[in-house]
């Protein structure tokens, strides 16, 4: 197996050039930075500072997470509202049933009261009829007694 090694030697003048180019690049970046222009990690010229760009990306992600959470919250609240509406309808139905039952009981009570009044009137009528029959009976008993007395007198006279 053959290995090939390349060695490079850098002369002091090349090192100075490299340092000088580095300083010039830094100065150019500073001047562009003051003008609002920046280089990104791919050395593309950007209007925004890389830090601001990163913060913007993070903010965008946070906003997306926030919007997702708000969406979940809206779903939960929507479900809760539906549940509360359903319970309200059930409560209203039960309320209507209770009102109907109360009205039915009032109606039955009124019917019983009316029936009781009718029966009391019938009792009073029957009592009056009984009193008439009693008076008539007493009158008939008196007439019978008078007729028996008359018959007895008629028989004794003969």
From TrEMBL:
Record-linked InterPro entries: FT20
Coiled-coil intervals: 105-136
Superkingdom classification of source: Eukaryota
Pfam families: IFT20
Keyword entries, A-Z: Cell projection, Coiled coil
Subcellular localization, as worded in the UniProt entry: Cell projection, Cilium
Protein's name in the database: Intraflagellar transport protein 20 homolog isoform X2
Underlying gene: IFT20
């Amino acid at each position: 197996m053959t290995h090939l090694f390349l060695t490079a030697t850098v002369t002091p003048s090349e090192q100075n050039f490299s340092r000088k180019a580095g300083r010039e690049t830094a100065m150019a970046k500073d001047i562009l930075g003051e003008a609002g222009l920046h280089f990104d990690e791919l050395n593309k010229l950007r209007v925004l500072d890389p830090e601001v760009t990163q913060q913007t990306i993070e903010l965008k992600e946070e906003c997306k997470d926030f919007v997702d959470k708000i969406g979940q919250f809206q779903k939960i609240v929507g479900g809760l509202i539906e549940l509360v509406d359903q319970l309200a309808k059930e409560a209203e139905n039960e309320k209507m049933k209770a009102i109907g039952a109360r009205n039915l009981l009032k109606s039955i009570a009124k019917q019983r009261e009316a029936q009781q009044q009718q029966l009391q009137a019938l009792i009073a009528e029957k009592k009056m009829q009984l009193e008439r029959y009693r008076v008539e009976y007493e009158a008939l008993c008196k007439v019978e007694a008078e007729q028996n007395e008359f018959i007895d007198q008629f028989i004794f006279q003969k």
